[in-house]
């Protein structure tokens, strides 16, 4: 089971959390860039580098918890075919900020995704696993839609030694809003290995964040 750091305020229930992200949508890109600049940049860079290494001609990719679609925009700018990208997010307001991206966009929860088993070659989930109220169920769904031989790329807020006052401030802000949590990295790995046969690699990065890459093996 994926456990979280004790928090003074619990993560918001599903509907309240969804409303919170709907309200954040207009400023989400700015806030997210600030988070990456001060706390999560290394983890995000590790995820994006891993995705670019494993993407092959014809690969299909799902970005689960896509937010305002910044990573998809980056892939498209590099020539990746839009018909091979699918974005999923539970916030309609977030997806409205993806209207300019010519890819498949799906409104839905990571814990209950409307896709067939083994649909995608690459599945990414960045800064979303720690937000859902049932991370074990979300992880199970991410594995379910991944093809054999496919790669799951996870980036999330993680329990880690604080480097400085900035780390403390960013972590405190997440806790105060109730819009996230901090997961135990090795709990996530254990849950992955219980859910599907896989090879797992922890990408090197610092700060209160982690990036994990898991390749699905044949049973």
TrEMBL record:
<dbReference type="InterPro" id="IPR013216">
    <property type="entry name" value="Methyltransf_11"/>
</dbReference>
<keyword id="KW-0808">Transferase</keyword>
<dbReference type="Pfam" id="PF08241">
    <property type="entry name" value="Methyltransf_11"/>
</dbReference>
<keyword id="KW-0489">Methyltransferase</keyword>
<protein>
    <submittedName>
        <fullName>Methyltransferase domain-containing protein</fullName>
    </submittedName>
</protein>
<feature type="domain" description="Methyltransferase type 11">
    <location>
        <begin position="62"/>
        <end position="153"/>
    </location>
</feature>
<dbReference type="GO" id="GO:0008757">
    <property type="term" value="F:S-adenosylmethionine-dependent methyltransferase activity"/>
</dbReference>
<dbReference type="GO" id="GO:0032259">
    <property type="term" value="P:methylation"/>
</dbReference>
<dbReference type="InterPro" id="IPR029063">
    <property type="entry name" value="SAM-dependent_MTases_sf"/>
</dbReference>
